[in-house]
Amino acid sequence: MKLILLGAPGAGKGTVSKLLTAIDGSVQISTGDILRGAVKAQTDLGKKAQGFMSRGELVPDSLIMGIMEKRLQEDDCQKGFLLDGFPRTIPQAEALNELLLKLDIKLDMAVNLDVPRETIMERLTTRRTCSNSSCQEIYNIKSKPPKVEGICDKCGSPVVQRDDETPNVIGQRLDSYNEKTAPLANFYEKEGLLKSVDATVTEDVINFIKKQLQS
Ligand code: ADP
Ligand code: ZN
């Protein structure tokens, strides 16, 4: 499958993507994970991105498009991909359209994960992430704690709160979502690709997407 996942931070894009990869071997492409990996490794990209990220601001479109142009041409994307956290702005969506045209790739749909704002705040403050940059498994201290407190079930690395998951930075991320990313729903509606689903329960989202892909 070739999907874009839209939705606020904390809507569940990462969790849903990870579950979808198990269905048909499509890969999850999370620009957030790629950027956090780059910051940790202190690559050129990481050094350029880290200030924006720690403030909860978006990283410039040109950096993001550089990442995506390379990533979409890697072999593992042949079976399909789940775009998680990209595109994030109208210019990114326009640039993605051009890139897909150039690579002769057609999207199945853009799925908008709808979650009430209170739920989002609650999820983001209780979320924890595996600190191993090649794992980045997501946990929640209330609904999905690791089996051993503070330790990743998958790889044994420490599970931590992300630097950008303090209340102030979360507020900034939600503002930038509302201003820059929320308009993408309208963009993909016009493209005839938008499907919206209530994402309060993850399983409902998976079932919805499966059904949409069959029809
Ligand atoms: P979330 O969706 O939970 O906010 P992500 O892991 O997707 O978190 O992104 C973390 C940070 O990485 C963002 O706040 C932003 O600074 C940067 N980022 C990720 N993807 C993009 C993108 N497509 N465009 C611009 N910045 C991005
Ligand atoms: Zn891990």
Structure, described:
There is one protein chain. The chain is of the alpha/beta class and 215 residues long. It has one domain: Rossmann fold (3-Layer(aba) Sandwich). Helix content is 49%, strand content 15%. It has nine helices and eight strands. The protein has helices at residues 13-24, 31-41, 44-55, 61-71, 90-103, 117-126, 167-181, 184-190, 202-214, and strands at 2-6, 27-30, 81-84, 109-114, 127-130, 138-140, 159-160, 194-198. Strands 2-3-1-4-8 form a five-stranded parallel β-sheet, sandwiched between helices. The protein has a three-stranded antiparallel β-sheet with strand order 6-5-7. The longest helix is centred in the last third of the chain and has 15 residues, at 167-181. Adenosine-5'-diphosphate binds next to helix 2 and helix 3.
